[in-house]
Amino acid sequence: MLSALQNPRQAAAQILNFGLVLSTAFMMWKGISVVADSPSPIVVVLSGSMEPAFQRGDLLFLWNRNLVEETKVGEIVVYNVKGKDIPIVHRVVRKFGQGPKAQLLTKGDNNLSDDTELYARGQDYLVREDIIGSVVGYIPFVGYVTILLSEHPWLKTVMLGIMGLVVVLQRE
């Protein structure tokens, strides 16, 4: 059972396989980022502010290559607020101007007021460069794993421990 620990060549092969899996996942993520022109092409809905369109835990796919069309009123976008790390998923409710300098006002479908309180200090509107991407698809509830891992940090330790045991005890 613990033969992998006794055979250094097999242990090294398992470590290399694990590294290969991690680097492949990273390369796939970066490849999707380049194709979608978004630093974060897949995000998880963290709150209920967009219900009924999206529920907490939905996995969203983003696209940021609006070469032909501009961002429109009614479009659901994900944006970052300067100085905050968490992306926000909300709908564009008003648009002022045209082109890359157009000013956008967003609001969650389940919120009573617009997002001006969420924007950075002194910022009344979003501009196109604040937007990470527009939502083009989603998978319901798949993102709950991410939410559980961020709300219960001890789960990360347990999962990493189990994965480590599987790698060490795996037979070939």
Which helices and strands occur, and which strands form pairs?
Blueprint: H1 3-6, H2 8-36, E1 42-44, E2 59-63, E3 76-79, E4 88-96, E5 103-107, E6 131-139, H3 144-151, H4 153-169
Antiparallel strand pairs: 1-2, 2-6, 3-4, 3-6, 4-5
Helix pairs in contact: 3-4
Rg over C-alpha atoms, rounded to the nearest angstrom: 21 Å
The residue ranges in which pLDDT falls below 50 over 5 or more consecutive positions are none
Helix content: 25-40%
Q: Main sheet?
A: 6 strands, antiparallel
Number of strands: 6
- N-to-C terminal Cα separation, in Å? 11 Å
Mean pLDDT: 87
Order of helices and strands: HHEEEEEEHH
Number of helices: 4
Which descriptor suits the 3D outline? elongated
Give the DSSP E fraction (strand runs of 2 or more residues): 15-25%
Class per helix and strand makeup: alpha+beta
- Spatial strand arrangement across the major sheet: 1-2-6-3-4-5
Descriptive overview:
This protein has about 170 residues and is an alpha+beta fold. It has a 6-stranded antiparallel β-sheet. The longest helix has 29 residues. The mean pLDDT is about 85.
Task: Quickly describe the structure.
The protein has 172 residues and is of the alpha+beta class.
Task: Name some characteristics of this structure.
alpha+beta; 34% helix; 172 residues; 4 helices
